[in-house]
Amino acid sequence: MKKRVMKLFAERRSPLHAESWELDSGSDAGAFRSAMRRIVGGVTVITTRHDNRPWGMTVSAFTPVCMEPPTLLVCLNNRTVTASNVSREGRFAVNLLSQSQMHLSRLCSQAGEDKFVDDYVVPQDALPHRMSMPVLRNSIVTFECKATEVRPVGSHLVVMATVDGILAPSSLPPLLYGEGRYMCGVAVDEIAAVSGAQ
């Protein structure tokens, strides 16, 4: 019996039983785009000022870089108003959205459309003095940033920035995006606790 189980295990690992890949590609932009859609992450809107009004753009590439000094990285399509604003002014804010802001993510992701967000920002006089860029109401956290390095890479600008200010309300559920749709997160340990109690 033991030999039979070992044989079945070996057969499953054999090349004769290769995986059925949905994506199998080399360096292809379309395949890369499809692969990146599988990443589930928080939704981020970059805010700047355009014509002296708050302006926002939804981005998919945002990541912290280091803690000392607090530094993050964002990637901006170099043909956008936001990329022009950041290149010119060197300042912007990164807003991580909550589940109540899905409409705002959609507004700020429409290509070729105005993305003024006047109706969705905290009034400037209600913000701490360190926050000069537009802060979106109900975001889970907003980082005030100063660009320290802007580098063109292909169709995008890679922007490294130091964090000058951080503003966050009480905890809010994050808005997630992956596989081409919006999602909400559920803590795995909470599911396990509920399942164990049943």
Q: Count all strands and give the number.
A: 10
> What percent strand?
25-35%
Instruction: Give the C-alpha Rg.
Output: 22 Å
In the CATH hierarchy, what is the superfamily of the domain at 40-174? Electron Transport, Fmn-binding Protein, Chain A
According to CATH, what is the topology of the domain at 40-174? Pnp Oxidase, Chain A
What number is the mean pLDDT?
A: 87
N- to C-terminal distance: 37 Å
Helix content: 10-25%
What class, by secondary structure content? alpha+beta
Query: What order do the helices and strands follow?
Result: HHEEEEEHEHEEEEH
Layout of strands and helices, then pairs:
Elements (H helix, E strand, L loop, with lengths): L1 H12 L15 H8 L4 E2 L1 E7 L2 E7 L2 E5 L4 E7 L3 H9 L1 E6 L5 H6 L33 E13 L2 E12 L7 E4 L2 E4 L3 H10 L1
Antiparallel strand pairs: 1-9, 2-3, 2-6, 4-5, 5-8, 6-7, 7-8, 9-10
Throw out a few tags for this protein.
Pnp Oxidase, Chain A; 5 helices; 198 residues; 34% strand; seven-stranded antiparallel beta sheet
Give an overview in words:
The chain has 198 residues and is of the alpha+beta class. The protein has a domain at 40-174: Electron Transport, Fmn-binding Protein, Chain A (Pnp Oxidase, Chain A, Roll), CATH 2.30.110.10. 23% of the residues lie in helices and 34% in strands. It is built from five helices and ten strands; from the N terminus they run H-H-E-E-E-E-E-H-E-H-E-E-E-E-H. The protein has helices at 2-13, 29-36, 81-89, 102-107, 188-197, and strands spanning 41-42, 44-50, 53-59, 62-66, 71-77, 91-96, 141-153, 156-167, 175-178, 181-184. A seven-stranded antiparallel β-sheet has the order 3-2-6-7-8-5-4. Strands 1-9-10 form a three-stranded antiparallel β-sheet, with no helix packed on it. The longest helix has 12 residues, at 2-13. The model has no long low-confidence stretch (mean pLDDT 87).
